[in-house]
Structure formats: C-alpha cells, structure tokens
Amino acid sequence: MSTKSFAVAPQIEAASLLVSDLPLSQLRLMDDARFPWLLLVPRRPGLEEWSDLSPEDALQLSREIHTATRLLIRYAAPHKVNVASLGNLVRQMHVHVVGRNTSDAAWPGPVWGFGTSAPYSEGARQGISLRLKELLESMEPIADF
Amino acid sequence: MSTKSFAVAPQIEAASLLVSDLPLSQLRLMDDARFPWLLLVPRRPGLEEWSDLSPEDALQLSREIHTATRLLIRYAAPHKVNVASLGNLVRQMHVHVVGRNTSDAAWPGPVWGFGTSAPYSEGARQGISLRLKELLESMEPIADF
Hints:
Two copies of one chain form a homodimer.
Chain A: H1 10-15, E1 16-21, E2 25-30, E3 37-42, H2 55-76, E4 80-85, E5 95-100, H3 122-138
Antiparallel strand pairs in A: 1-2, 2-3, 3-5, 4-5
C-alpha cells in the first residue's frame, strides 16, 4: 500500500472548484463557462489508469459517474453527456463529465484542447456550485446500488 | 422493459471488428492502425448515457473497462490509456479504450475527430484480433470482483 497522501494535482486545483466530497471522489466544477463540466477525482494517491483502481473503487467510481451524469442532466439538460478519463496532460486520474449541446462551439468534436477556457465570474461560480450541491442533496443516494 | 433487440449501430459496425463477447459488452477492435483502440458496446438496446445503465450494468461496465484497459496495456504497453464515452456522432452507448503514446500523431490532444482513420490490412486485422483473444483468455476472469 502506498503511504503517500492524496492531493489534487495543481493544474486541476487551479482549473476547477470543489463542489462536494462523494464517498470516493471529489466532485468538482470546471471553471469554464463554455460547457457545463464536472470532474470526479478519486481520493487515492498514485492513481493513473482505470486498471489501477481496486475492484471496490472501480465499482464506486461507476456509481459516482452515474450520479454526476444524472446531476449534470438535471442541472443543464444537455443534448449529450461526454464521460472521459484521459490524463494525457495531467496523469492523476480524473473523470470528465461534460454536457454537450449541438450549439456549443466545439460540437460535435471533443472539448479537450479546444480553444481557451472562459472562467466564470466569482458570483456565477459560487451560484452554480450552490445549485449543484442543492440538486445533489435532492437526488437518491448513490449507495442505492 | 424495452422489447427492442440489441444491434450495433451501422457506423460502429463499419469502423470496427468484434473481438469477443464479454458478459455485458461486445469488445471490438477499431479498424485504425494509428492507435491501439478498443471499443466496449454494452448489448442493451436504447442505451445512450451512463445514467441509462441499470445499477448492475453500471458495475459490470466498470469491470469491463478495467479488463479492456489491462488488455490494452498488455497488448500495446501505451504511455497512457484514454477511456471515453462520448456519443456526439453515434448516440448508441460505446466506450473507447485507446492506447496513447507521446509519439502518436494526435498527442497530447484527443483522437476523436483527429485526421483520417487508417484501416489495417486484412492480415493485420485478423492477427491483432487473434492476439487480443489470446491475451484476454490468459487474463484473470473479470468476474473476480
């Protein structure tokens, strides 16, 4: 077992905001007003690949992706949700859950590497985070399965 | 319950080759020699989003992503594995498991929408499919967790 402690990579910390601690992962809001965009960052040191997850954590991550997808649909009613764990630039495992619309600037291409992020205003950032927390609390618990 | 039967979308069928039937998903090889690239297509009609998965299927899909990631690492030893369920062009749920290298043409950007696919020769396609099946059979069963 690793004795390293968990810390969010500085690039993720700088580009996103903690919304809630789910049982396994930090649920974060990407600070990019172009797309409704959540991140899940499992609180385990040294994780890079899906296959690095313990069996229990792999199942829990799937539950949390399920939850984040439902949350994003309630929050933004997107045309499609994109789920991805890439890690080409930041190796620490993190899962993107991104709402896509046919009218968004990157459609139908992927959002990663597309253009320049557009940070929210401080008020919008806090308002969205609060709204996401409220929606999350109103949802069925993710431990239902 | 839907009474529709499962069929792979024609675009996926045309761009990839069935390697093996896992308990939930078809494991397919993308016919693109630029990247070692697997697909998982859950055999459920009408699936589009992660949140459309039943609880049991969501857990099984995570097991199968775990397996496909390990398989790809054994087959191609990539620098990083990209896992993604997008569906912007083909809405039927399918999960990409793509091996990435710092020397590949799209690095560090995403592979989706990048350039033009480079189909394998018939011999290479069959050889890779056989090799993947052999590696899969040599791996621990995915029902271990």
